[in-house]
Amino acid sequence: MRCLPDQYLTPEDLVVMMRLPSVETVYQWRRKGTGPRGFRVGRHVRFDPEDVRAWVESLMEGAA
Asked: Which domain holds residue 18?
């Protein structure tokens, strides 16, 4: 079993990390199925940092 990360990321964390225009961008990615894999905890969306890293790496591979 994988170890749990120290901290799951919020949509707001992704906005800051990736310098996105707004949190709505993250929710649009989820609706379109184009962003990093996320999961719900009640009403809240969270992202595993490893999933975000893998998603970014897949984008970089596609750009090469």
From this structure: 11-63
Long-range contact list for 12-19, CB < 8 A, 24+ apart?
A: 13/47, 14/47, 14/52
Helix (H, G, I), strand (E, B) or coil at 14: helix
Domain contains 39: yes
The count of structural domains within the chain is 1
Give dist(CA 64, CA 46) in Å, integer: 29
Taking the CA of residue 51 as centre, how many other CA atoms within 13 Å lie in the half-sphere pointing to its CB? 17
pLDDT beyond 60 at 1: no
pLDDT of residue 3: 61
Residue 26 within a domain: yes
Geometric angle at alpha carbon 40, from 35 and 43, rounded to 5°: 120
In a domain, 4, yes or no: no
